[in-house]
Design brief:
Radius of gyration: 21 Å
Low-confidence stretches: none
Helix content: 25-40%
CATH topology of the largest domain: Aspartate Aminotransferase, domain 2
Mean pLDDT: 98
Largest sheet: 7 strands, mixed
């Protein structure tokens, strides 16, 4: 089965991991700092805190933003459920706002209409790697007195008006799952320019520990002394995985270029295929394409999905609108809230896209899809 996405592992990645395994540090060591520093080069210098997953990154970011019971978090339903679930777990009310009908990114005007006096965070998702309208969303967030969070699980390396993802929002979260552009197997990160936000993120991912004597309430016991002032969790990403991530980041430009070339080939070969809408690209965006999401028209998405997979091509659907999950239904959310998102979902199909996808395999994807639709 040809997958819709997969990791791209080279000998350098294997050597980097083996070197750590033979060294003195498996976790909380120099590879973590090196990985975070290299990641900050891709965020325009905005410092980063590594964590154990993209979901952990969202949890850490919402905690750093001070999200709590009684707060509202405005976000998109066209995302993996973690974008909303991590806010709900902190007691916040998730307010879903509709998306742009073609990019599936959070619509700034829909977000504006969803804002309440209790809105603490507006959380966008750079769907498929295409940056959201961060100018419009920044205006909405600032007007609401809220923080802007960018769930950049799909978009590491992407640019918005020449500025890198990671520098556009108050808090940015990354995912390094194997299907993403860069992988640490499991892993994530939080980027924040504000020192206070970054410090809260760093402490929460490490149990809330305070080791600096100048900040402790009862210092002077000895070098072993540490205190917890606010609760946190162990979300530390170990050195062995950071070594893999560091090696991967050094090939991010190569990954971006190959994905862009594959997208260009798809665009050219599928341009005249009937019953298909191709992913758009806004003039302000230079995406790092994580997905190649087409829309199958005429109510044929299920048919195309089944027939493609029967042919050994692992297409995927990304995503079920988040509030369709029973956990949100049980909280009172109902279908029909975001018609653009639901219409997009009904047609969406992700075609295989990853750096090791060969031109020959891509030709096979296009030929099979074209045969089905014609």
């Amino acid at each position: 089965m040809l997958p819709y996405g997969r990791q791209s592992i080279a000998d350098d990645d294997v050597r980097a991991v083996a070197e750590v395994l033979r060294g003195d540090w498996l976790t909380t060591g120099p590879a973590v700092r090196a990985f975070e520093a290299e990641l900050a080069r891709w965020t325009g210098g905005v410092p980063c805190v590594s964590v154990t997953s993209g979901t952990a990154a969202l949890h850490v970011a919402y905690v750093a933003a001070g999200v709590k019971a009684g707060d509202d978090v405005v976000t998109t339903p066209m995302t993996f459920v973690a974008t909303a679930a991590t806010a709900a777990l902190l007691g916040a009310r998730v307010v879903f706002a509709d998306v742009e009908p073609d990019t599936a990114n959070l619509d700034p005007e829909a977000a504006r209409a969803a804002v309440t006096p209790r809105t603490r965070v507006i959380a966008a998702v750079d769907y498929a790697g295409h940056p959201a309208d961060h100018d419009g969303l920044r205006e909405v967030a600032d007007g609401a007195g809220a923080l802007l969070l960018d769930d950049a699980a799909h978009s590491i390396g992407s640019l918005h008006r020449g500025r890198p993802v990671g520098s556009l929002a108050d808090l940015t979260t990354f995912s390094f799952f194997p299907t993403k552009t860069v992988t640490t197997a499991e892993g994530g990160a939080v980027a924040a320019a504000d020192p206070g936000l970054l410090d809260r993120a760093a402490r929460f991912r490490n149990h809330g520990l305070v080791r600096e004597p100048a900040l402790q309430r009862d210092p002077g016991h000895g070098g072993w002394h540490q205190e917890v002032h606010t609760f946190g969790l162990n979300y530390r990403l170990p050195d062995v995985l950071c070594a893999l991530g560091l090696s991967q980041l050094r090939r991010l430009a190569q990954f971006r270029a190959r994905r862009a070339a594959l997208v260009a080939r798809y665009n050219a070969m599928l341009a005249q295929v009937p019953g298909l809408a191709l992913p758009p690209r806004r003039p302000y965006a230079d995406p790092s394409w994580h997905l190649y999401p087409v829309r199958v028209l005429g109510g044929r998405r299920r048919e195309v999905y089944d027939r493609m997979r029967e042919a050994g091509i692992g297409v995927q659907v990304n995503y079920i609108p988040a509030y369709w999950h029973p956990v949100f239904e049980d909280l009172g959310y109902r279908r029909g809230m975001c018609p653009n998102a639901e219409a997009y979902y009904a047609r969406q199909l992700s075609l295989p896209l990853y750096p090791d996808l060969t031109d020959t395999d891509q030709d096979r994807v296009v030929e099979t899809l074209t045969k089905i639709l014609r």
